[in-house]
Specification:
Length: 146
C-alpha cells in the first residue's frame, strides 16, 4: 500500500470516530482521552491492525493514538529526494527516529520516537480535523533550493 493511500484511508477512519464522539458531546480532552491505546483496543479494534495482537507501535506506557502517523512525518510515494543510490520516500522534519534502506529506497523508522503519542502533545496540536494537523505530511519532492 502506498503512503498516500494509507494516509487517506486512515483519515477516513479517524474522521468517522471523531464525528461519532462529537455527536456524543465529547470535549477536546475527552476525545483525546478516548484515543488512549487501552481504550482503542477495546472500543475501536478496526482502527489499527496491531490492536488485534494487543501490540503497541511504540514502546511507551501511555500511548495515545490520536496522532497515528505524525505531524512531523513527511512522505512522497515518488520520492522526496535522492540520497546517493537511494530514493528517500519518507523522512522526519525534526530529524528524530532512524531510517532504514532496502531495495534502493529509504524509509523513516519512527518506532523509537514517542513525540506525537503523549497526551500533552496531542492536546497542544489538537484539531477535530486530523488532516489539518497532518497537512504537511504529504510532501512535495525536495529541490536543490530546499
Amino acid at each position: 500500500m502506498s503512503y498516500l493511500k494509507w494516509f487517506e484511508e486512515h483519515a477516513q477512519k479517524q474522521r468517522s470516530i471523531v464525528q461519532k464522539l462529537l455527536q456524543r458531546g465529547y470535549s477536546k480532552e475527552q476525545i483525546v482521552a478516548y484515543f488512549d491505546f487501552d481504550n482503542m483496543v477495546e472500543a475501536e479494534p478496526g482502527f489499527c491492525p496491531l490492536y488485534a495482537k494487543g501490540k503497541k507501535c511504540h514502546d511507551m506506557e501511555r500511548l495515545n493514538c490520536y496522532l497515528c502517523a505524525c505531524p512531523n512525518f513527511r512522505f512522497n510515494d515518488d520520492g522526496l529526494r535522492r540520497q546517493g543510490e537511494f530514493l528517500v520516500k519518507s523522512a522526519c522534519s525534526i530529524h528524530n527516529g532512524a531510517t532504514c534502506g532496502h531495495n534502493g529506497v529509504v524509509h523513516q523508522d519512527c518506532s523509537s520516537c514517542t513525540v506525537p503519542h503523549h497526551e500533552a502533545y496531542v492536546l497542544k496540536h489538537f484539531d477535530t480535523e486530523w488532516t489539518k494537523i497532518m497537512a504537511e505530511c504529504p510532501a512535495k519532492p525536495e529541490t536543490d533550493e530546499d
